[in-house]
Design goal:
The chain is of the alpha/beta class and 166 residues long. It has one domain (6-153): MoaB/Mog-like domain (Molybdenum Cofactor Biosythetic Enzyme, Chain A), CATH 3.40.980.10. 42% of the residues lie in helices and 20% in strands. It has helices at residues 11-15, 23-32, 47-58, 80-87, 93-104, 132-153, and strands at 2-9, 35-43, 65-69, 90-91, 117-120, 123-128. It has a 6-stranded mixed beta sheet with strand order 2-1-3-6-5-4, sandwiched between helices. Strand 5 (117-120) and strand 6 (123-128) form a beta hairpin. Helix 3 crosses helix 4 (80-87) and helix 5 packs antiparallel against helix 6. The radius of gyration is 15 Å and the shape is globular. The chain starts with a strand and ends in a 13-residue tail after the last helix.
Length: 166
């Protein structure tokens, strides 16, 4: 089982201005694919807020993957890839490349996505697009390598899944 935290990057959802319409479908999709969601947070479209949340989550024992949702485009408020690079120790550019390549088969604007992935300690961070459909489609591209990656990163892991507190 893969232990996952989700960070939604959206100022309007964060402020309560709009509803998080993708939460339920993402949770259901992850559960159907044997993932345990231990945290689901919403942060504003702000590089420092994203960075702080990622740093916090990377310290959670036995957390395998952090999925960021949103902030991967070209708008002035899109900071997910930069905040991720601020936090990770090793970038895995192939994940972003394959997500863009697969998405490009469906929508031409996929070439504007700047999402990336990387590792800090024993935790993997993956940037997914903000649309619920796009997030799940891109996640489906990554799923085949998650078990393998978690196994490689978990060689020294011991213990149970902990709870998350801020």
């Amino acid at each position: 089982m893969i232990v996952v935290a989700v960070v939604v990057i959206n100022s309007k959802i964060y402020s309560g201005e709009v509803e998080d319409k993708g939460a339920e479908s993402l949770r259901r999709y992850l559960q159907e694919h044997d993932a345990l969601i231990v945290d689901y947070e919403v942060v504003p479209d702000d590089r420092e807020s994203i960075r702080k949340q990622l740093l916090h989550l990377c310290e959670v024992p036995n957390l395998h993957v952090i999925l960021t949702i949103g902030g991967t485009g070209v708008r002035p408020t899109d900071w997910a890839p930069e905040a991720t690079r601020d936090v990770i120790e090793k970038e895995i550019p192939g994940i972003g490349e394959v997500m863009r390549a697969e998405s490009l088969k469906k929508v031409k604007t996929a070439m504007l996505s700047r999402g990336t992935a990387g590792i800090r300690g024993m935790t993997m961070v993956i940037n997914l697009p903000g649309s619920p459909k796009g997030a799940i489609e891109n996640l489906s591209v990554c799923l085949p390598i998650l078990d393998h990656t978690v196994a490689k990163l978990s060689v020294k892991r011991k213990g149970e899944v902990g709870t998350i507190s801020q």
